[in-house]
């Protein structure tokens, strides 16, 4: 019998926000898959159960793995599949990497191993798991999503604010791309993945006279909260999320 390829949302950062189902499925899976964004990590690596990792610094830097480890300490003794997922935009290069990652995972699934692919937030929202899910499901493998609390819901809770009321619209926007049209939409705008584009994002928000609040590293030890666009640093980290509203905070 073939194994199941799970995309498991571990939530935004606080291990206590992981679901009971996510914890159970991680415990049941034979292999834990970890997405590695380090630019020098280019080939998938399998580390057998009980084997000391050859890349401890990579596991330490992987937020999703560390969140899951806090909630499910026994995963440190499971087999691990380290998969390169570089942050780059060249579609052909990324497609080849995703093809290779999917084929690597497929080999273990054919042998009957279920794989728990850990992803921040929820696997249905800007998740690298989706790239492999489409390939593996197309080959006939059983793929399943285990939902997690999305970062924008956790950030709204941290700010003690609602995202949408009554007939308000809610828009989720990738802020690393052109956002001018998105900011013109009515209702609340959630800006994700601003990263190096933060200075441009701040200027665009200010030009429209919108109110913006931001949570950086929500639920993590390094969490920071900013109550207006003027407070937000240009060098904010990758896990920074803005909640933008019209004329009020």
Summary keywords:
single chain, 249 residues, alpha/beta, Cobalt-precorrin-4 Transmethylase, domain 1, Methyltransferase, Cobalt-precorrin-4 Transmethylase, Domain 2, six-stranded mixed beta sheet
Which SSEs are present, and which pair or pack?
Elements: E1 4-9, H1 20-28, E2 31-36, E3 45-47, H2 56-61, H3 63-71, E4 79-84, H4 91-110, E5 115-119, H5 129-138, E6 142-146, H6 151-159, E7 170-174, H7 180-183, E8 188-192, H8 198-207, E9 211-216, E10 224-226, E11 240-245
Parallel strand pairs: 1-5, 1-6, 2-4, 2-5, 7-8
Antiparallel strand pairs: 3-4, 8-11, 9-10, 9-11
Helix pairs in contact: 4-5
Walk me through this protein's architecture.
Strands 3-4-2-5-1-6 form a six-stranded mixed sheet, sandwiched between helices. Strands 7-8-11-9-10 form a five-stranded mixed sheet, with helices on one face. It contains eight helices and eleven strands. Helix 4 crosses helix 5 (129-138). 39% of the residues are buried. It folds into two domains: 4-146, Tetrapyrrole methylase, N-terminal domain (Cobalt-precorrin-4 Transmethylase, domain 1, 3-Layer(aba) Sandwich); 151-245, Tetrapyrrole methylase, C-terminal domain (Methyltransferase, Cobalt-precorrin-4 Transmethylase, Domain 2). It is of the alpha/beta class. Helix 7 links the parallel strand 7 (170-174) and strand 8 (188-192). The mean pLDDT is 93.
Short description:
This protein has a six-stranded mixed β-sheet with strand order 3-4-2-5-1-6, sandwiched between helices.
The string of secondary-structure elements, in order, is: EHEEHHEHEHEHEHEHEEE
Main beta sheet: 6 strands, mixed
Strand content: 15-25%
> Low-confidence spans: pLDDT under 50, at least 5 residues?
none
